[in-house]
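Hey,
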Amino acid sequence: QVQLVESGGGLVQPGGSLRLSCAASGSFFSINAMGWYRQAPGKQRELVAVVTSGGSTNYADSVKGRFTISRDNAKNTVSLQMNSLKPEDTAVYYCNAWVVANRAPYPDDYWGQGTQVTVSS
């Protein structure tokens, strides 16, 4: 019923930039929050950044000052501008959204398929 489609991943050099985008589609009532997680090989998935429908944002300490999350509520999209990329940022990045389906009592947690970000010289 709800799909999250990510785009924008790729290979960049350290210090470079990428912009990830995620679009939610389907039938739903609202989206409470959208964010980005990442998972590197052998590591747990971690929160990168999240933005609520009210505009409140939160970032992982490791990306503060370098990444910026933004959301277009009308288009149901979220973007992550990634600047000053480091090799440690290499991971699969997943779009996440808390979606309230039509007539649903609670929001459901949805995930995109993931997009690879590789930072290497």
